[in-house]
Amino acid sequence: MPTFRLLLFLLLTAPSAFAQSLSHTNYTWAENPSIHALNEKETQAHAVILKDARIVEFRIEDEMPTRYRTLHRLVHLNDQTGIEMHNRVYIPVPSDGELVQLSARAIAPGGEVTLFNRDRLKRIENQDEYGDMQIFALEGAVVGGEVEYLLTVKSMARPDGQETVSAFSPTREAIFSLDADPYFTVSAKSYFCGDLDLEKGHSAYLRLENIEVRKEELFSLDDGNRPKIFYRVDEVNYEDGSKATISSWLKVQKFLASVFLVEESEATQAALRDFLKKEVRIRKSMSEEEKILALEEYFKMRFQIQEAESDETRDLQWVLEAKIASEFALTRLFNLAFRDWGVDRRLLATCNRYEHRFDKDFFSSANVQNFLFYFPQTDRYLAPYAYQYRYGLPPNYYADQYAFEILDTERISLYAGVLPKFHFVAIGGHEANFMHKDYDIRFAEDYRKVTVNLSIDWGGNHASGIRADYNLLQESERKEYLEDMFFTFNDDGIVSNAAIAHPENTELELPVTTSAEVQIPSMLERAGEDILFKVGEILGEQWELYREELRQQPVDMPYPESYRHRIRFAIPPGYRMEGEESARIEHKMELDGGQVAGFHSEVTVNGRQVEIVIREFYALGSYPMDRYEDFRRVINSAADFNKAVIVFTPEK
Amino acid sequence: MNIRKWHYCSWTLVLAWFLGQSSPASAQPKAMRNLMEEYSGEAAVYLKSNRAVELEIVDGELIATEEDVEEALVIDDKYGIFSTREIYCGSLNEVSDIQAVVRIPEKSKYREVPVGNIERRSSERKGIFYEGGTMAKLTYPGMVPGAISAMRYRTTYTDARFLAGFWFQAYSPILEAIYSITFPETLDLDWKLFGEEQAGVKFSESRAEGKVTYTWTAERLPKMARESSAPSARYYGTHLVVFVRSAKIADKQVKYLDGVDGLYAWYQTFVQRIRPENDQELRRIAQEIVQNRSTDREKVAAIFAWVQANVRYVAYEDGWRGYIPYPAAEVCAKRYGDCKDMANLTREMLQAVGVDAQLTWIGTRELPYTYTDLPTPQTDNHMIAAVKLDGKIEFLDATDPFLPSGYPSSGIQGKQALVSVDRDNYELVTVPIVPAEANRSVDSIALRIRDGVLHGTCQAFETGYMKRDFLAYLRRDQDAKLLTYLQESRVLGNNKFSISEAEIDSEKGGADPLRVGYAFTVPDYLRAAAGRYYINLNLDKRLPYGRIDREERMLPVKFDYQYEVRFHCALEIPEGYALKALPETVRHTHPRWGMEMAYRTSNNSLVLEQNFYLRTLQIDPKDFAAWNDYITALEDAFRTTVVLIPQ
Fold it and tell me: Which of A546, A305, A571 is nearest to B488 (CA)?
């Protein structure tokens, strides 16, 4: 491999960076700081980030590709909460990195400056996803004052990275600058903010103004929709004129195929076969799906996941023995077993859309954080280390977006001309994710409570969630878990005879059925000689979007779903029924000529028998912003139904 | 809130996992199979939990070395929490020689698999910014039902006063728990046993070669209950705390934790170690704060409010730093600190303006101990300041920025405080439990019906902890908007409750009530049928705590504080309508909780007066039935609807 030895003249004659791009060597803060005036809106926030500059530089230093990441943040503090949001600073400094610059200060409303005493900088190690960090608390932060820090971390160059705008405070000015020596070709892409100025593959710049805090919203991707910038090194250009690709779909294909799709040793294959036979009890007579389900159940119930990849977890024989696996190791083991059984499958690399929606148009390692098997013969998925999911539907956070297919040798040649190959992970239809609830209601003779015999069929994602939870619980915990499923509107229900049918993870084709008898006092109210039957509360509290006035994000559902409620009761003897029209509600939403969401309840009276049937469904994974009001009307229908009240008045 | 690092860690550690002596590798799986049958339904049982402590005098210092050994038998495949083990280590409790294996059953024997890589990381605890310790995490390989995890490690305390407590019970059964401590005969050792199963703990004593060994053994004590809203396990779990009163070192009798005197004398050494700093600026600020305040009470209120508002809670803990406050002048300049820093700053500022404030050590309600019973550092986990006003001690906890002046924080009510008087003298004072009437919420609501929709205005007055909670939740909310907060926190009627305008009085300190006013509508709350209006004036039907399952619930239910809640709700009867019938007054009284709901008419309005009170911090199991009666009465009363008929 060519070295990174550089010629001095190249450094001297290197084209100057894009005029706007910045460097940590000449970036500085105001020598004489003063307090900034805020506008009316800014005074309403706990704190305002007046400036948030991120400068990323790729350099060659001592023949090594090096990254400098500089952060400059200046924050105006409006109240105590604002101080608490901004007075602690956590700086990820990787083990090969160094904090080469750190200045921090607090500026009091009168202009007095308190400089940070660097002796109080502390190091903490091995902190989950952040690794090693250095931390400090800003000194002298007061209400009405400002805090400011400027820091640079130098480390080995990473192939890619991302910068995300603060989720907690409004930002007056945010700057992103990417600059690379000519030996790198870099690129960047912005999401949910303005377009980047890109130049010659060596620099990128973006300046944003007045970024508001994004509220948490129901049915949204939240973090997945945060303004952010991804950047990467595409190529390194060596002194001998050769180039090395650093980041690309093809590069990642090669890497992932070398991890997952290589031939394992004979000894490993033999160990796995022995394991499958003796421990998992796989029999030849089992169907392909039975084998898949049995293996998945074994791995997910009995293997421990170790966050970090280690020498041990790379050794599959050790993994089988220890029952401790990394995510990579578990994926490899599944794949090896599927290969051994001749199962037709695709291995996909993807990401959690609640953090970042997969973007096939811009390669970044953030797109390929997780793995998923797809079985084309059955159109089913398996997420190898997602404990809450089982073979069948894909986990909702991987669905409704593309995934990257890791091609084996055979399929690489098949798709040679159209690489990379992407696979759209469909989110499934609303019919599959159903909840069918049947309520038979009786009134106590003294009208102090109702008794409800309730039976619920859960399908699709609803069922797999229950199965995964239920099977992880101790027997002693299951009773409480089941009873909690029958919570009532005012939490005053008394649940008895709670039962479950088909809870096993392997009962793929059957819905989970739960049932119980629930006594609920709060559904009946006395009004002199009249009785109010709050029939709407039988559904339990429903999601509502009554108060959301200005929607900021498009609607993203966890998954399409449907509900059917059937409520039956008899009008009490000696009474007549009034007000049943409050239980009749209909709202629907159409898109491109088809109905994509709806709520419809109808009341049928047959003699003294009353039946209310409700059908509610959401057919799409995402709904466009400009149709939000239609969506909201449907969502709110169920909460409106909660308020349905039937009045029983004495017959004269 | 945390004063120190190490002993919390140790308690957490012993609560989480228990120790025992290792079984020989040749132990017969058959015996274990019987146990698996006996304990089916459990994820695992602890076979043994053993701690052997050696106290020695080395170079004139009393050193403690603990040898912890533990074994657990996996019963079924839901052993998740038993598959990993975390051990915390700080500079005052150094952990070494961690060894762990898994014994995997194979036919009639066990195959022993050592635990390889032990992951190490900086330890972190909620609320502590920098802890300074490390955490070792080991993962047991090859765990299957029938496997036995076994581990041992050594803990060295450079000061034996830091000895951790030992638990004979856990959230899983322990078959055998043994604690032994060996010490020189010249040493005066004391101990205290806590918990509900003390009778099951046997004590024995032996002597040999100038050393004494005390041993406590418990076999098959029941596992502890784990329930929400319950007092901490220290109130009922059986555990032992051993402490050294004094020791003869080089022919001198050295006092250690010799009663409260010994503990206080030791704590004073921490206070004496506070670095001297130039406090000119602190004094200037303090004088400025109390300008125009003439009485001590006013000065205390002003300085307490300043520390609350200007110094943020940021806890740096690292070894002895967990015990010794930073200099007050430094904290004043940095504008952050932990509980002891803020207590010391409050004290110094008050002393700078001539008010005799003192440091105070205290345990929160999480800890059941008193200094009188247990004069050890295990008794406390917090530091505050105290001041004597009008002959009475008042407690100042500035770590809570919303606490009204004159109120102790709710988490220390009823606890014994160790209040410094001077270097050699102290007072033990019990923190008062704030009476219900001092924590009051009063809502005065006026309702009217317009176009079939319920409209209302509310004037709410909050005092004491009610006021504190209101402000704390409001200020910590992301966008801190009163209207949004009220909208989310006060659902009256139904979830279409909508506030159109809201106002709040500028915050007043002390016992002055906080006033909040708002106007609202509640669409779809009013029911109209057959020309009548049906309305339930119980707009807020939330229960103070639900019905308690008397068959399942084992532990008391605890509350943060006592309180009174009052609603005065007046509905203007619309023109052309009349009240069909006035509901009867309902009352349910108990010495510690109760309510009254009285309806009356006044001019052209229907008025509902509601009064609820809670005068206890805990419901004990013997009172569960009485509590459930109260809840039934409340639910019944809440289901009263009035009818307005056309005239």
Answer: A546
Chain A residue numbers with beta carbons less than 8 Å from the beta carbon of B306 are none
What pLDDT shows up at residue A306? 86
Instruction: Confirm whether pTM is higher than 0.80.
Output: yes
Alpha carbon of A463: minimum distance to chain B alpha carbons (Å): 20
Alpha-carbon radius of gyration of chain B: 30
In Å, what is the CA distance from A334 to each residue of A331, A375, B224, B557?
5, 13, 40, 48
User: Is the distance from CB of B7 to CB of B48 less than 8 angstroms?
Assistant: no
Under 8 Å CB pairs connecting chains A and B tally to 171
CA-nearest of B593, B559, B581, B571 to B643 is B581
Q: Which residue of B has its CA nearest to A533?
A: B639
Residues in chain A with CB shorter than 8 Å from the CB of B134 are 125
Structure tokens at B119: 């992951």
3-state secondary structure of A446: coil
CB contact under 8 A, B144 and A302: yes
Instruction: Determine whether the interchain pair B144/A323 forms a contact, defined as Cβ–Cβ distance below 8 Å.
Output: yes
Which residue in B639, B640, B643, B644 has the most chain A C-beta atoms within 10 A of its own C-beta, making it the best mutation to test that interface? B639
Q: Which two tokens stand for residue A351?
A: 């990401």
What digits encode the pLDDT tens for the residues A45-81? 999 999 999 999 999 998 899 999 999 999 999 998 9
How far is A385 from A411, CA to CA, in rounded Å?
Answer: 25
**pLDDT, tens only, A244-293:** 999 999 999 999 999 998 889 999 999 999 999 999 999 999 999 999 99
Task: Specify the DSSP class assigned to residue B42.
Answer: B
- Average pLDDT rounded to a whole number, residues A87-98: 94
Task: Say if the Cβ atoms of B541 and A522 lie within 8 Å.
Answer: yes
Instruction: Indicate if ipTM > 0.85.
Output: yes
CB atoms A124 and B580 under 8 Å? no
Q: Do A639 and B84 touch (CB under 8 A)?
A: no
The whole-angstrom distance between B200's CA and the closest CA on chain A is 25
> Cβ of A140 and B333 within 8 Å?
yes
Give CA B518 to chain center in angstroms.
34
Q: What is the pLDDT of residue B126?
A: 80
pLDDT in tens, B522-554: 999 999 888 899 999 999 988 889 899 988 899
Per run of 10 residues, the mean pLDDT along chain B (length 647 residues) is 33 34 50 92 94 94 95 89 89 93 90 89 85 91 93 95 96 97 96 97 96 97 95 97 94 93 97 91 97 95 95 89 93 96 98 97 97 97 96 96 93 98 97 97 97 95 94 74 85 91 77 90 91 94 90 95 98 95 95 97 95 98 97 93 93
| CA pair distance B80, B43, nearest whole angstrom | 8
